[in-house]
Every structure is written in C-alpha cells, then in structure tokens.
Specification:
Oligomer: single chain
Helix content: 40-55%
Order of helices and strands: HHHH
Number of helices: 4
Number of domains: 1
Number of strands: 0
Largest sheet: none
Structural class: mainly alpha
Amino acid sequence: MLAKADYALLETGWGRIFDWSRVLAVPFLFPEHKNLRFTLDYDDDYAFFGALLEDPGYYSGLSGVDTAALALRKEYYKHNQQIALDYWVTFSKNIKKEEAGK
C-alpha cells in the first residue's frame, strides 16, 4: 500500500505498482518511438489524430502497427512531439527523485 506522500510520484511511477511476478509480457510488434503518442489529452494530440485520420492512406480497419507506421512515415507525430518529449523529461526527473528518496 502506498503512503499518502507516495501519491505525488505515482503519475510517473505507474509501472511499478503492479505485481511483476504476475505480469505477462506481450511482444510489441513495432519499434519503440518515444515521440509517437496516441492520446487525446491536449489540443496538439487532437491535431495529431486529425492529420492521421484525414490521411488518404488511413482507414478504420488499418492495424495498429500499420497506423503507427503511417504516423511515422508522414511525421504526424510532430503535432504532439513536444508533449511526448516533455513527458519523458519529467518522467526521468521523478524517477531520479524517487530513487534518491529510497
């Protein structure tokens, strides 16, 4: 159970709240790309999806891997790239802060 003070780090530490002995690893079929962000939290995310969904090569039956490939090939990720970059900077800072507190 987390102490109340630990909740401040939960936003960037969600991956460590699970019982890893029970986690099933699922292979990711696409190379990792830290700038590729499929979420609708900000206006820039909306711009990303708008560009992707309006692309003539996109259709609703397109696989996740092919959708990611299209977003990378057409560089649609540039719409919300800064948000992804900022996230990873904050994530790294908070991991260091968390490790220093152990």
